[in-house]
Automatic annotation (TrEMBL):
The lineage of its organism: Bacteria, Bacillati, Actinomycetota, Actinomycetes, Micromonosporales. It comes from Dactylosporangium matsuzakiense. Belongs to the short-chain dehydrogenases/reductases (SDR) family. This is Short-chain dehydrogenase. Keywords: Oxidoreductase. Pfam families: adh_short.
Length: 308
């Protein structure tokens, strides 16, 4: 595989419909912009529709805006219903939006903010839209994770909402580990259908608004090191774009920057933590996510004999 994959490698996307969450700024903006420039009909699924409109105005092509607040399951259901009313097919769902290192906060449904936004909101949205994708050959669900899935990361089934104690770094790590476990379990369920694939990506270290809640103890060192260890949002979006559009990409794959420590560079296949591949934990998380969101998927769990 080429180590210098760029937006020039994106195949023609005309006739394809793509939904990108959190697309009014940063990685999501660059992802949506690149897809629109290659001819896709792109929906910016964003919490602030005014900002979304301004972002759409800066993009060329067929770009529209859909209100979506991932911190509210009511909003997720309303957005899914609106999208189902507008489209009879969906080729790409890019689960990009996210929050990082927030203080202890809860979503409108009472979930810990990072787990609720980064994982549960996207889990519910995917489940509510997936039947628009299953009939579409080559359709893909791409979920954006982070190298943070390795840092103090575990799925705390005894306290998923961090009610007993709270670590903003640990909670972020849990949410990003959940993104990967969701992707891998979804791919196992999709494998029998042969049309839709689930992939994951991470941006390395990109200079976006996501880091605005970085703890004070880390902020100064990161500021000093930023010129050496960060890349632009346009570069950070490339792993997502490759996972979404590279004809050679396969379900269950994970893409990240190809440079040292996966911090910067052009996208390539990478691996995630050993824990992220644990099928038992993936299935347990899936069951918990269905229970918490009330959303079930139109694809069932594969038989134990089916390969992952």
């Amino acid at each position: 595989m080429s180590q210098t994959w760029t937006t020039a490698n994106i195949p023609d996307q005309r006739g394809r419909v793509a939904v990108v969450t959190g697309a009014n700024t940063g990685l999501g903006f660059e992802t949506a912009k690149a897809l629109a420039e290659r001819g896709a009909s792109v929906v910016l699924a964003v919490r602030d529709v005014e900002k979304g409109g301004r972002a759409a105005a800066r993009m060329a092509g067929d770009v529209t805006v859909q209100a979506l607040d991932l911190t509210s399951l009511d909003s997720v259901r309303s957005a899914a219903a609106a999208l189902r009313g507008r489209f009879d097919r969906l080729d790409l769902l890019i689960n990009n939006a996210g929050v990082m290192y927030t203080p202890k906060l809860a979503t409108r449904d009472g979930f810990e903010m990072q787990f609720g936004t980064n994982h549960l909101g996207h889990f519910a949205l995917t489940g509510l839209l997936l039947d628009l994708m299953l009939p579409v050959p080559g359709s893909r669900v791409v979920t954006v994770s982070s190298t943070g899935h390795r840092i103090r990361a575990a799925i705390h089934f005894d306290d998923l909402q961090w009610q007993r104690s709270y670590s903003r770094v640990g909670a972020y790590g849990q949410s990003k580990l959940a993104n990967l476990m969701f992707t891998y379990e979804l791919q196992r369920r999709l494998a029998a259908h042969g049309t839709t694939a689930a992939l994951a990506a991470h941006p390395g270290v990109s200079s976006t608004e996501l880091a605005r809640n970085t703890p004070a103890a880390l902020r100064l060192p990161i500021t000093w090191l930023a010129p050496l260890i960060t890349q632009t949002p346009a570069m950070g979006a490339l792993p997502t774009l490759r996972a979404a559009t590279d004809p050679a990409a396969l379900g269950g794959q994970y893409y990240g920057p190809g440079g040292r420590f996966e911090v910067t560079g052009h996208p390539r296949l990478v691996t995630s933590s050993a824990e992220s591949y644990d099928v038992t934990t993936q299935q347990r998380l899936w069951a918990a996510s269905e229970e918490l969101t009330g959303v079930t998927f139109p694809v069932g769990a594969p038989s134990p004999a089916q390969p992952r």
